[in-house]
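Worked example

This section walks through a single chain of length 138. The input is the sequence exactly as stored; nothing has been trimmed or padded.
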Amino acid sequence: MTRTKGGYRARRRRTKSGSFVSRGAYSRLTRTITEQEIRSLFSAHRDRDKQKRNFRRLWITRINAAIRERVVSYSYSKLIHDLYKRQLLFNRKILAQITIASRNCLYIISNEIVEYTGIIVNRVARRMNSGKGEWKLL
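Given that input, the structure is written out below as tokens.
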């Protein structure tokens, strides 16, 4: 029986798919290409999550720097806590964009929140001084 070459099937199997790297064996050898594709897809998936984390850290840093620039004793964590208490649900991305676009707007928001929380603290202090019943946050 005569020898048959791989022909059609072998060529189909070895066709180089969209190569992610165009250097050395990663673009020439079939097995290495498939390994590199798997590795690069894995890295892309991992780094998408890492990018989200990094952007969140960047937004938090920008907000914290802007707040501490104006008021010394006020911090990012207090601002976010007071925002949730006041039920103003800004996400960090929007707050960071407000900070970059106009710091004055961020200062207005933080001052409103500080005034609101100051009213609550004053009510609690009055109730504590009056000596009547339990002390509750109003």
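What to look for: The CA atoms of residues 64 and 76 lie 5 Å apart.
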